[in-house]
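Incident log, entry 3
Record: GLPGLI family protein (228 residues)
Problem: checksum mismatch between cached and fresh output.
Input:
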Amino acid sequence: MNYNFFSIVLILFFNFTTAQTLKAILIEKPIKGIGDETTLSDKALKPMIFSYLYSENKSIQNLISNEKSSIDTTYIEKYGIKHQTTSSISRPSSFNRFKDFNLKKLKIVFTQDNKDINIKESLPVFKWKLISESQTINGYVCKKATTINTTFNSNQSIVAWYTEDIPINDGPMHYSGLPGFIIQVEISDITVLTFDKLVFNKENTPIEEPNNRATEMSFSDYSKQSNK
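Fresh output:
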C-alpha cells in the first residue's frame, strides 16, 4: 500500500518536472465596483476569459472573451429609494500580457476603444507573506500568501493561493514569485482571478513577444498620456 502510494507520487512528480508546457484558462471575475459605485450591472459583472500558456520560462495571457466598452444603466438604492445611474464599462477588445522570466520583462499589449497601447516594464517583485492556511481549488491543494500591490499606481490588498504541486513560479496578471504556481488571486474584495482546465505537455511551445502598431512606452508614460 505504501509502495503503491510512493509510486504514484513519483509518477506525478516526474510528469510535472518533465512537462515543458502548461496551458490553462484564466477567468477574471469582477465582484463589485470601487468607491460609491459598488453595485455592478450584469454587463460589468461579466467575467473576462483569457487563455494561458507557459513554456521555456515565458508566459502569455491572451483575452479570448468578446469584450467591448459600453454605457450601462444601474440602480443604486439610498434611503429606500432607487436612483437610476449610467456608467461606462471600459474593456479592451484585445489584450495580451507577456512575461519573460529570464529577462525579467513584462509586456502589456492591448487595444481599447480602437486605440493600440504597448507597455513595457520590468517584472514586479512582491514581498509575500506566507500564511499557514490552505484550501483546494480546481483539484489542487493550495497554500495562502498575502501582499500589498503598489505597482502601477495601485494600493491593493492581495490574497494569493498557490500550489507546490506545480513547480512553476508564475500566476495571474503580473503576479509571481511564490514557491509554486498561483492558482488564484483575490484583489481586495473587488476581483478574483482563477486558473482552470490546466493541461501539461512535454514538448516546448514557442511563445513570441506580442506587439502592435503602437510605440513601446513605460507605464509611467502611459499614465501621463491617459491623464491628459
